[in-house]
Design goal:
Largest sheet: 5 strands, mixed
Number of domains: 2
Structural class: alpha/beta
CATH topology of the largest domain: Nucleotidyltransferase, domain 5
Strand content: 25-35%
CATH class of the largest domain: Alpha Beta
Number of helices: 7
Helix content: 25-40%
Low-confidence stretches: none
Number of strands: 10
CATH superfamily of the largest domain: ATPase, nucleotide binding domain
Order of helices and strands: EEHEHEEEEEHHHEHEH
Distance between the termini: 40 Å
Shape: globular
Strand order of the largest sheet: 2-1-4-5-3
CATH architecture of the largest domain: 2-Layer Sandwich
Length: about 270
């Protein structure tokens, strides 16, 4: 029953592979099901009661925040109350009190205000699975007119590497193998495949830096805060020869979620 969610008479195994890409998370129930599993894991980690009230905190890209906020709020805050399900053979009864939504990236800075302190302008780049979300902060305030979303996320990079390895040496490497090599971690693999992965990681970094510059952000003129799943890739492959202004890498993939929690905790305390 490990990682098994039981809901409405059906069984789901969580965490067995990459989710099929959808542009709108509300188009199917996958994200809602994963949210149940996440609630169960959080309760277990905190040794809380399995019958409890919950305030959900989640995020959306700032570029689409206004357009998607209402639909995403309704998707998470359903009429079905309390929410009953089983996770890893334990029963849960959850009453969702409220859903708070925040802009991705910017909320993570709630944990790292030092990244923007005393800087008149900072670029925030959140490198996710499918998109690279950009925004400029002027005097620590997001400049909405500068928000951009580029379809250059880590999934694009991994898919390109998979194809290059297969085309050049005939091997079918897995996504997890690729990610470990790009992050400099140990992985038993053909040296030629590793060489291709490292080379493609650098090409991916160059592509992102070029796209950011083309979007109107001069990385050589203003400091940048780089976060998300792709932050560790850029950190490993950016070189002094790129001539970038000061860079700060937030490589914790939970940075956004931790930021949402910190903000909601402050709101509830007030």
């Amino acid at each position: 029953m490990r990682n098994v969610l039981q809901y409405n008479g059906k069984f789901y195994v969580c965490g067995t592979g990459r989710q099929t890409l959808v542009r709108n998370k509300t188009s199917n129930d996958n994200y809602y099901l994963l949210t149940m599993a996440a609630i169960a894991q959080e309760i277990r980690y905190r040794r809380g009661e399995r019958k409890t009230d919950v305030v959900l905190a989640a995020g959306l890209p700032l570029a689409s925040f206004g357009r998607e906020k209402k639909g995403f709020w309704e998707y998470l805050f359903r009429k079905e109350q309390p929410l009953r399900f089983r996770y890893e053979d334990e029963s849960y009864e959850i009453r969702i009190q409220d859903v708070k939504l925040f802009p991705q990236g910017y909320s993570a800075l709630a944990l790292h205000p030092e990244c923007v302190r005393d800087e008149p302008s900072v670029l925030l780049a959140d490198i996710g699975g499918w998109t690279v979300d950009l925004m400029r902060l002027d005097n620590s305030v997001p400049n909405a007119a500068t928000c951009r979303s580029l379809e250059l996320g880590v999934i694009r990079c991994v898919d390109e590497i998979t194809e290059q390895v297969r085309r050049n040496i005939g091997l079918s490497v897995t996504d997890i193998q690729i990610e470990r090599v790009m992050n400099g971690q140990s992985c038993s693999m053909d040296p030629a495949a590793k060489e291709i992965i490292v080379r493609q990681g650098r090409l991916y970094t160059e592509k992102i830096l070029s796209a950011i510059m083309e979007a109107g952000f001069d990385l050589k003129a203003i400091p940048s805060v780089i976060m998300g799943g792709g932050a560790s890739i850029l950190k490993r492959h950016v070189t002094p020869q790129d001539g970038l202004c000061r860079q700060v890498y937030l490589t914790d993939v939970h940075a956004n979620a931790s930021g949402y929690e910190r903000i909601v905790g402050q709101m509830c305390a007030k």
